[in-house]
Each structure stands twice: as C-alpha cells, then as structure tokens.
C-alpha cells in the first residue's frame, strides 16, 4: 500500500460532497468535499510505484478543465487511468461542480 498526495490550483469551491465508485466492488472510489483555494488529492493505492502514472493522469485532467477547489480522497484498487479520470469527473459532476 502506498499513499500519494497532489495539489492543484482551483477556481471557486465545489458546491457539495460526492462519492463516485465503490471500493468494495474492486473499483476505484472517489470521495469529494468542498475546500477553499486549492484541490488537495490523497490517493491510497494497492500498487506501489505508480506515482508517475497518477501524476500524468491528474496533471492532464486539471490542465484540461478549470475545476473548483475540493478535498479528494481516492482508494484506487489498482484501477486503470481511464477509470481514474471517469470517477473523478463523476464526483465533480455529482457535487454540482462540472
């Protein structure tokens, strides 16, 4: 198990809380709640040595969209980059921030 943290500039704050995915299903789970100023992401992953992959996926996501500030906790269950992006986008959408 490894824990990885990232921080990104943000505009405004997410409007609400959201959960996307279910960790018990063997799928990625994203927990999102509003924050001020920046988006802080903490990832708990079952696959050690994947910080570079996570960085590439998140850098691309946050460069392509002006997302609001949030605290995001992710339990990845070894999910692929496509599932990662999908679940994060779903959490922002559910929180009314997309």
In words, what does this structure look like?
- There is one protein chain.
- By secondary structure, this protein is α+β, with helices and mostly antiparallel strands.
- The chain has one domain.
- The chain contains two helices and five strands; from the N terminus they run ββββαβα.
- Strands 1-4-5-3-2 form a five-stranded mixed beta sheet, covered by helices on one side.
- Strand 2 and strand 3 form a beta hairpin.
- The longest helix has 14 residues.
For the secondary structure, the number of strands is 5
Question: Taking Cα atoms only, what radius of gyration do you get, to the nearest Å?
Answer: 12 Å
On the 0-100 scale, what is the average pLDDT? 88
How far is the first residue's CA from the last residue's CA?
A: 31 Å
Low-confidence stretches: none
InterPro entries: Mal_deCO2ase/Cit_lyase_ACP (IPR023439), Malonate_deCO2ase_dsu (IPR009662)
Pfam families: ACP
Main location: cytoplasm
Subcellular location: Cytoplasm
